[in-house]
Amino acid sequence: MSKFKKQKSGDLPAISTASLPDIVFMLLFFFMVATVMREDELKIENRLPNANQVEKLESKNKLVYIYIGKPSAQYQKTFGVTDVIQLGDKISSVEEVQTYVNTKRNDMPEDIQDEMMVSLKVDSGSKVGVLSDVKQELREAMALKINYTAKKGDPMRNLKK
Amino acid sequence: MAKRSAPEVNAGSMADIAFLLLIFFLVTTTIEVDSGIQSKLPPPVPDDVQPPKIKEKNIFQVLVNQDNRLLVENEDMAISELTEAAVKFLDNGGGEGPAACSYCQGEGDPESSDNPDKAVISLVNDRLATYSTYVTVYNELVRAYTILRNRESQKRFNESFEDMYLRYKEWPETEKETPEYEKLQEQVDLIRDLYPLKLSEAEPQQS
């Protein structure tokens, strides 16, 4: 009797997991291709708004990023809760924008320096005040090509909280 | 003994390895936004230069206050109506003589803009307005220009401006010497000249 039972359970074929790696690899490749490593570590909140009049940005080597937003939770003790500017990896003041942009421009190969574009990544909840200070500085630095980085989407969704 | 085939390699752990990699990529990467609204800042103005005089009727004033409310031409307006109002203003074509606009389809109201070349949209923000409102307003104003450019491009070249511009932008780098490209460039420039984007941003008001 016991022999009979054993045989029956032994006949159940195991589910083949041979294709599991293939599936996972497929996912892996998708993520590897679809994602880009972040340039800078964000120390501020940065939820970008939606817009439908967007154009694709220039290639990465022509871009300079400026982030604006509230400091994220762990930095609020040091930098307060009002909107701040992040240049590269650190939170900076408005006065440093010119120097930063000029340094970045000088680091670029000479033939594309004129095509430099500033990508303004501004949190949708922040106030326009800081942004306009930055824009004034950019004008002074002659960095006139700018881009309000935004996701492609319905702009009316920005207005709903 | 020699006849026994080589033992199969156990591939069971392959999945684990792949999962590990997958999770690593999932955690470390974020999909970067690589699109945005293009804009150009005006170059710094020397102090002694007088700003050019623009007739009152050629200015379309948009004010955004600290409560994110809109004041367009001294009237309260919802953002959803902004594009339509801007199109109406730009396409008015109320000019006479040399300032007349032959391709405009607006009402020709003498109290509104002369032609799209003279028409200026002025956007003034309060410093306390939120960025999301600002981008939305800016987007709607740019959309007004896109609508008009699309219409004109459709009429002249039977292709919307957006498609044409995309084709222009994505032209292969090696084939830019061809006459097709030059023709396309001419068309894009023509449409742009017909409805030039004149969006002035004054410095925001302190409140």
What is the gist of this entry?
Chain A is of the alpha/beta class. Helix content of chain A is 34%, strand content 19%. Chains A and B meet through helix 2, strand 2, strand 6, helix 5 and strand 7 of A and helix 1, strand 1 and helix 3 of B.
Task: Kindly provide the radius of gyration of chain A, computed on alpha-carbon positions and rounded to a whole number of angstroms.
Answer: 25 Å
- Main-sheet strand order of chain A equals 5-4-3-6-7
Query: Averaging pLDDT over every residue of chain B, what do you get?
Result: 83
DSSP E strands of chain B, number = 6
Low-confidence stretches of chain B: none
Largest sheet of chain B: 5 strands, mixed
Share of β-strand residues of chain B: 5-15%
Q: Which two chains touch over the largest interface? A: A-B, 58 and 53 residues
Largest sheet of chain A: 5 strands, mixed
- Tell me the fraction of residues in β-strands of chain A, as a range: 15-25%
Walk me through what this model shows.
The complex is a heterodimer of chains A (161) and B (207). By secondary structure, chain A is of the alpha/beta class. Chain A has 5 helices and 8 strands; from the N terminus they run H-H-E-E-E-H-E-E-H-E-H-E-E. Chain A is 34% helix and 19% strand. Chain B is of the alpha/beta class and 207 residues long. Helices cover 37% and strands 13% of the residues of chain B. Chain B has a 5-stranded mixed β-sheet with strand order 4-3-2-5-6, covered by helices on one side. In chain B, strand 2 (59-64) and strand 3 form a beta hairpin. The model of chain B has no long low-confidence stretch (mean pLDDT 83). The interface between A and B is large, with 58 and 53 residues.
List keywords for this structure.
heterodimer, A: 161 residues, alpha/beta, 5-stranded mixed β-sheet, two-stranded parallel ribbon, 34% helix, 19% strand, B: 207 residues, 37% helix, elongated
